[in-house]
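TASK: fixed-backbone design
INPUT:
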């Protein structure tokens, strides 16, 4: 199947000499949620801005729905909705009028039924006659999403969509994103909330210093780079680890009453059986055992460290 977005060897270097993107290539499938992760200044916003036609690349090509963003920009741009980081709304305009106006910018005629559908899906219908200056920060972000959806785009870019939004509203917005994906919209989001990417994304891309370090299905990424930790509660404290145990990935905590062991859960031999046998042989009793899977944050930091070392 032809991807809805095809990025080939894209680069961007500013006049100051700063290289914001360095030979980025990426295909994005119709109907997937792709999360782009990276520290500040990694190139996430530059990449989105180029695809949306807001920044001119130095090299490479981008096609959206088969349309080149530079030579066939009108058709490409019509397929895209963008929710930017910054909240920029006309303070005295009513919510419904904001969405109507944006729809008109794309040459689309009035469609009050669709307007109501969008506003209801974002819990904005009751606020349709409110002026945007009267809204909370979270509601203003919902208005930005409604504006981005006004012309029925096939692709939606969400650049830090839940920044500054409280936890309850953030989870409500996650459900909105899932509903959009279920309707066939392709979603590309950047976020600093790693649980957001871990909870929603089909694939995760990691970008740093303008380079796309990798793009993998979430489950595959967690399986390849995620590690597990075994935590053993001991029946008596240990003053120190037995000689050589620190080399096995073991560490002491909780005043010597807790033993932690990092291991690769995919390995044929995890070493857990050997560890428990050693504890028994030394007369060290075990009160409880628990395991913890590495989080996406652990994986993300590991990838950045690996990328910096290259």
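OUTPUT:
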């Amino acid at each position: 199947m032809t991807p809805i977005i095809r990025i080939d060897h894209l680069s961007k270097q500013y006049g100051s000499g700063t290289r914001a993107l360095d030979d980025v290539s990426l295909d994005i499938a119709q109907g997937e949620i792709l999360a782009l992760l990276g520290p500040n200044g990694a190139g996430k916003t530059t990449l989105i801005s180029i695809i949306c036609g807001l920044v001119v690349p130095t090299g490479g090509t981008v096609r959206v729905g088969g349309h080149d963003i530079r030579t066939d920009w009108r058709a490409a741009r019509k397929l895209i909705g963008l929710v930017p980081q910054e909240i920029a709304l006309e303070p005295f305009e009513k919510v419904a009028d904001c969405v109507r106006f944006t729809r008109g910018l794309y040459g689309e005629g009035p469609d009050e039924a669709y307007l109501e559908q969008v506003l209801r899906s974002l819990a904005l219908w009751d606020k349709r006659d409110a002026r945007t200056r009267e809204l909370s920060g979270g509601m203003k972000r919902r208005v930005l999403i409604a504006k981005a959806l006004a012309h029925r785009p096939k692709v939606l870019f969400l650049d830090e969509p839940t920044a500054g939004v409280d936890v309850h509203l953030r989870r409500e917005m996650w459900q909105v994103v899932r509903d959009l994906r279920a309707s066939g919209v392709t979603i590309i989001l950047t976020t600093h909330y790693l649980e957001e990417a871990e909870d929603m994304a089909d694939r995760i891309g990691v970008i740093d210093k303008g380079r796309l370090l990798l793009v993998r299905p979430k489950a595959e990424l967690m399986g390849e780079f995620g590690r597990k930790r075994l935590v053993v509660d001991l029946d008596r404290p240990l003053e120190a680890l037995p000689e050589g145990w620190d080399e096995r990935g073991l560490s002491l905590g909780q005043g010597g009453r807790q033993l932690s062991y990092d291991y690769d859960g995919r390995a044929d031999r995890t070493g857990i059986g050997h560890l428990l046998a050693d504890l028994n042989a030394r007369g060290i009793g075990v009160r409880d055992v628990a395991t913890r899977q590495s989080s996406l944050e652990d994986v993300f930091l590991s990838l950045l460290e690996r990328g910096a070392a290259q």
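COMMENT: The domain at 227-293 is CATH 3.30.70 (Alpha-Beta Plaits).
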